Amino acid sequence: MSVDYKSTVYLPKTDFPMKAGLSSKEPELLKHWGKLDLYNRQREQSNGKDKFVLHDGPPYANGNLHIGHALNKILKDVITRCQQMLGKDANYVPGWDCHGLPIEWKIEEKYRKMGADKDAVPPVQFRRECREFAEHWIDVQRDEFKRLGIIGDWDNPYTTMTYEAEAQIVAELGKFLLNGSLYRGAKPVFWSVVEKTALAEAEVEYHDHTSNTIFVSFQIQEATTNDIVKGASIIIWTTTPWTIPGNRGIAYSARDEYVRLRVTALGENSLLRIGEEIIIAKSLIDKVTAECAITEYQILLEFVGGELEGTICSHPFNGQGYEFEVPLLAGDFVDMETGSGFVHIAPGHGFDDWELGIKHGLSVPETVLGDGLFAEHVPLFGGNHVFKADVLVIEKLKEAGCLLAAGKIQHSYPHSWRSKAPLIFRNTPQWFISMEINHLREKALNAIEETAFFPSSGKRRLAGMIETRPDWCVSRQRAWGVPITVFVDKETGEVLRDATVMERIVDAIRKEGADAWFASDPSRFLGDKFRAENYEQVMDILDVWFDSGSTHSFVLENRDDLDWPASLYLEGSDQHRGWFHSSLLESCGTRGRAPFDAVLTHGFVMAEDGQKMSKSLGNITAPQEVVEQNGADILRLWVVGSDYSEDMRIGPEIVKYHTDIYRRLRNTLRYILGNLHGFGDAERLEIAEMPELERWVLHRITELDGMLRQACNNFEFHSLFNELHSFCTVDLSAFYFDIRKDSLYCDRVDAIKRRAVRTILDELFKCLTAWLAPFICFTAEEAWLTRFPGEDESVHLRLFPDIPENWRNNALAEKWQNIRNLRRVVTGALEVERAEKRIGSSLQAHPIVYTSKTYIDEMADLDCAEIVITSDVTMIDDPAPLKAFVLEDIDDVSVVSEIAKGNKCARCYKILPEVGTILGYEMACGRCADAVARYLAPSE
RNA sequence: GGGCCUGUAGCUCAGCUUGGUUAGAGCGCACGCCUGAUAAGCGUGAGGUCGGUAGUUCGAGUCUACCCAGGCCCA
Q1: Would you tell me how many other CB atoms lie within 10 Å of the CB of residue A837?
Q2: Closest nucleotide relative to residue A716's CA, C1' based
Q3: Nearest alpha carbon to residue A262 among A285, A250, A280, A278
Q4: Half-sphere exposure (CA, 13 Å, Cβ side) for A273?
Q5: Angle at A347 between CA A341 and CA A348, to 5 degrees
Q6: Gap from A464 CA to B72 C1', in Å?
Q7: What pLDDT is recorded for position A589?
Q8: Intervals of chain A under pLDDT 50
Q9: What pLDDT sits at residue A413?
């Protein structure tokens, strides 16, 4: 009777499904981790170990996550998990940024919709609604982050709006106050005279607007460096005539060409005089002469702007209360497109003006009040409204003989988003942290030198900004934020610097939140020493960047489970100007060093064509959709497989690519699991007893382990990811597994070779599940639990396996590289046979390999047929016949493929002469007959 | 306009530091095999003017300049 050989073959068996079903499986695993309390178990387990603190840059709590959030948090998670598995205590505490304008807007919007005036709402109520709004979005984002598999202290995250945080932020500001770095200065801001309020940049809309334009001459008073300009006047052009009373300087372009020209003929209505000499930019001669009706002129001199250094003009209203010097200053914002090549500088009426003015010590006059009226102290114009001042200014200029031309221009101009009224730049009192008083700039630059940057270009980028930035303006005229808790002496304007007062404020805020500042009587803070009626209480709030720049103090320093400074800050490259920047300044100002040892930046996420994602282009990839349709592990694989030091791309094709990669990794795990069915310690084999091929696998494990540890140290995973994938595909699936399938399926259970293979599979399983755990955290867990089920089990409680050094065997690696080359020639030869329809399966072949003695000696102890998966192989040290198959790049191997002789073993499919000769097993080969005779069913 | 960065097969990445055979890998694609990993597995093959132009050099993906395209941050 015929034997049912099929039932005696040891086929893979596992509950680990081929189809992942991640969208339903992942939530189950999240539940498992919740029950297990994985985060706290990790903490217990790594208690006392070296800490790795990745300090979370807080996202803003005002909407659902986008793909950039997903990239950022997954990257942080991968790094945290890797450090944890390297044996550190990698405790990740997520946080949220809660104060600021966008949330304030949402609440304002709500009131507007109800037809209520937001200004009528008591500040404390308004602030409470902002707080509730932030709380809502923290909950939403927390769930979305958790769904991505991010592990961290989600039950105790930090936020910038807890009372504790607000108190600490105030305490940090107090340090700048007490050491003299914080001062009151002035800065122009967008101002609406209709609403009598400052507007943030984001509240400004640009619309077309018709402005008056004027060309004005400024008489040269003295020229210190040379006399090429003496006796002439500088011509400026402006679209805001009303700013002339605020003029304190003139900017030129140091590298552009200027001319001195003499007017020789004039048009009818020209306001100039024949013989007048003026200085303008060379490239703008035509425009200026046309506008000013200069019909003929003579160029007297040409020179570069730089030569104007040191020139002093007088103000057009000199003699009428404007008796001050108007210096010429080089400004890189001066353009040669419009005007005269000179920009009049009114430090209270423009950002460029202000910055240039501060740099050169110009005064910043307060000319216009909040309601749009010129201050009484402004000569000629006091009490006039700014919107009506243009005409007046033009008239007075004409009287002074300084007006060369007046016109109109239609251009894009800032307007209020609420009232739609045109805005002005108005000088306002603001609070600043000095970059110089306590050497903050120098300290910050030194700190940058001490910091490791990934990629290294980040160092230059950040240093460049610190080198040139002006003092830090930390005040905002807003409601939703941490107050600038400062008192100013009404008489002297002196800032009150008193440690005890500051302590009282901090204590109150710690107990009652920042509202305490707005709701308390000032005497509560001032105590007996200072009288409340003598002091003005500042009602500005802090720049939110000061909040987030202080997180290192109220998170890293104040929490026992963390350490200061952080091991790593990791954010998008925009944070060079944002969080890295503000954290660095805050920490250098208060602690003299950076709050981080290293800074890692990642790029931005683009659509598949490399363009920015936008609703209008319809090329947005939402993380929630990928998670729902493909699974979080796919998104995580995308992060790990991409080079995030540059901009990355995502879209349907890229998601599909990573799904394919995922499938291969999953099937590799599945095959290992299937073939480890019933494996136990008794079956394990010592390395010394293993065949070479198994020892080669162990060597490959040492190589990958080395790459893994290097990748963790450099926070660079995409190369490792490629190596891991290629290991699973090329080394395992196409080579090792393919070869060992025969032994696994057909050898006796107690065969040495089969035991060796299963021991290797066990090692591979332990390594791959650990190595993949930080990347595809769900699937690695699923695989682990399939083999080691239990409510207390988790792959994430493991460390990366320690790989014994004696697994490394470079000589063996080199030898097997040669063997694989030989194998390539054989498979190539078989492919020809297949095309000619002489064989189908490779087991039908018996290749004759013509090769060198070196090869033959090298393979003397090996079963070549087994390695190339044929039924037999003959190796000959002879010259190859002409018809033999060769590969171009392998010169000492030629193959002639013959057909294997014998009958097919019904069990192992090999074609061998012995098949049919074994009594009782006429359909089987010797090995299989023996295996069947001693068949042991796989244990259940 | 300025600072920092990027551009290599349809896709994800190597190679560039230190110039030197015919620019590599995986995925995808095409074709074939297997039917005992089966919505799997194996093999073979086709795909690249290395963003463009000039230059340095005996020789440039690699070095230099300019240009084009894209990104982040400023103006």
Answers
A1: 7
A2: B13
A3: A278
A4: 8
A5: 130
A6: 15
A7: 97
A8: 1, 940
A9: 84
For residue A939, what pLDDT is reported?
Answer: 58
Q: Does residue A674 approach strand B to less than 7 Å at its CB?
A: yes
Answer whether A486's CB lies under 8 Å from A431's CB: yes
The one-character DSSP state at A731 is: I
Displacement of CA A98 from its chain's centroid (Å): 20
Closest-CA residue to A904 (of A916, A893, A920, A894)? A916
The residues of A between 336 and 365 with beta carbon within 7 Å of nucleic strand B are 351-352
Three-state SS letters, A363-418? CCCCCECCCCEECCCCCCCCCCEHHHHHHHHHHHHHHHCCEEEEEEEEEEEEEECC
Chain A residues 374-433, Cβ below 7 A from strand B: none
Query: What whole-number distance in Å separates Cα of residue A301 and Cα of residue A260?
Result: 5
A725 CB-to-strand B distance under 7 Å? yes
Among all protein residues, pick the one whose CA is nearest to the C1' atom of B2: A332
Give the C-alpha separation, A893 to A826, whole Å: 9
Rounded Cα–Cα distance for residues A197 and A370 (Å): 7
Helix (H), strand (E), coil (C) string for A51-105: ECCEECCCCECCCCCCHHHHHHHHHHHHHHHHHHHCCCECCCCCEEECCCHHHHH
Backbone angles phi, psi at A222, to 5 degrees: -150, 155
Residue A786 CA to residue A796 CA, distance in Å, equals 14
Q: Is A539 helix (H, G, I), strand (E, B) or coil?
A: coil
Q: Which nucleotides of B are covered by protein (CB under 7 A)?
A: 1, 3-6, 10-14, 22, 25-28, 32-45, 70-75
Phi, psi of A176 (to 5 degrees): -70, -35
Contacts (Cβ under 8 Å, ≥6 apart) of A525? A485, A487, A501, A504, A505, A508
Q: Report the nucleotide nearest the CA of residue A668, measured to C1'.
A: B37
Beta bridge partners of A413: A207
Does strand B come within 7 Å of the CB of A835? Answer: yes
Helix, strand or coil for residue A331?
coil
- CB of A558 nearer than 7 A to strand B: no
If you measure CA to C1', which residue is closest to nucleotide B37? A671
Residue type, A144: E
Q: Is the CB of A719 under 7 A from strand B?
A: yes
The answer to whether strand B lies under 7 Å from the CB of residue A457 is yes
Q: Please state whether strand B lies within 7 Å of residue A740 at its CB atom.
A: no
**Residue A430 near residue A187 (C-beta atoms within 8 A):** yes
Distance CA A630, CA A919 (A): 55
C-alpha dist (Å) from residue A832 to A45, A822, A828, A839, A864? 58, 16, 7, 9, 20
* Chain segment A502-518, per-residue pLDDT in tens: 999 999 999 999 999 99
3-state helix, strand, coil in chain A (%, to 5): 45, 20, 35
Residue A167 is classified by DSSP as H
Nearest to A526 by CA among A553, A561, A486, A559: A486
What Å value separates CA A624 and C1' B18?
A: 46
Task: State the angle between helix axes of A810-835 and A692-714 in degrees (0 to 180), rounded to the nearest 10.
Answer: 110
A663 touches strand B (CB under 7 A): yes
| Element containing residue A546 per DSSP (H, E) | helix A544-549
* 8 A C-beta contact, residue A839 and residue A831: no
Side-chain half-sphere exposure of A529, counting CA atoms within 13 A: 9
When computed from its CA atoms, the radius of gyration of chain A, rounded to whole angstroms, is: 39
Peptide bond into A455 cis (omega under 30): yes
Answer yes or no: are the C-beta atoms of A541 and A479 closer than 8 Å.
yes
C1'-nearest nucleotide to the CA of A888: B22
